Amino acid sequence: MDVHVVEHPLAASRLTVMRDQRSDSVAFRAALHELTTLLVYEATRDIAAERFDIRTPVAPAVGVRLANPPLLVPVLRAGLGMADAAHALLPEATMGFVGLARDEETHQPRAYMESLPEDLTGRHVIVLDPMVATGGSLLRCCEMIAERGCGDITVICALAAPDGMRKLSESGLPLRVVTGSVDEGLNEDAYIVPGLGDAGDRQFGQYRRY
Ligand SMILES: O=P(O)(O)OC[C@H]1O[C@H](OP(=O)(O)OP(=O)(O)O)[C@H](O)[C@@H]1O
Ligand SMILES: O=c1cc[nH]c(=O)[nH]1
Ligand SMILES: [Mg+2]
User: Fold this and answer.
1) Best of 28, 29, 102 to mutate for ligand 2, by most ligand atoms within 8 A of CB?
2) What is the pLDDT of residues 126-165, one digit of tens each?
3) Phi–psi pair at 19, nearest 5 degrees
4) Ligand 2: which residue has its CA nearest to atom 5?
5) Which of 15, 52, 98, 108 has its CA 20 to 30 A from that of 141?
6) Which residues have C-beta atoms less than 6 Å from ligand 1?
7) ipTM (interface pTM)
8) CATH code assigned at 63
9) What is the count of structural domains for the chain?
């Protein structure tokens, strides 16, 4: 599995704001939005493009546009905070939605939403979720996407743990990962260490979900 860790001072400074427990939800959401812009920029460096003829006010020229605009899939809740930034850079993209909540005891993901095009054959799908911890949630999401025929999945996350990366890699699914960091590991509650806490709670608040 191809893994690209975006090592850039601008990305690192946004990650620092997200990690800092003093950052409130306004600062956290702004940093995630800006980090996503940087990650999407890096992740799409080799995206398929086609050339076409245009005219400037002065002369004929050759333009560039995306050959196969991707499907963006933010994973609810936390991935919602990445959706706008990704869509701003990829305005031609369409968007699907997957909702997953990790059980606090078992750490297994529970799917509560799957709103995706029926056929993803030949599509490039970009999955947005800030956290890959055990990897269970992203694996579940990527399985949903691969089952619909997709052979080209890019996962964009802010932070990943080695366990989660291993799980995704061993899945054999056609995916690559672009991340802001691969952290040390997981604690006994399967939170990333040092991580940033719960990315959903830090954006939207902590409340009981059913
Ligand atoms: O790799 P994993 O061990 O599966 O954990 C990562 C998942 O946990 C978080 O979502 P969470 O279940 O907290 O839902 P939320 O976004 O609604 O807070 C995060 O956004 C990932 O989807
Ligand atoms: O560290 C973690 C692990 C799972 N989900 C989060 O939001 N944070
Ligand atoms: Mg959460």
Assistant:
1) 102
2) 999 999 999 999 999 999 999 999 999 999 999 999 999 9
3) -70, -35
4) 198
5) 15
6) 75, 77-78, 100-102, 107, 109, 129-138, 164, 190, 198-200
7) 0.98
8) 3.40.50.2020
9) 1
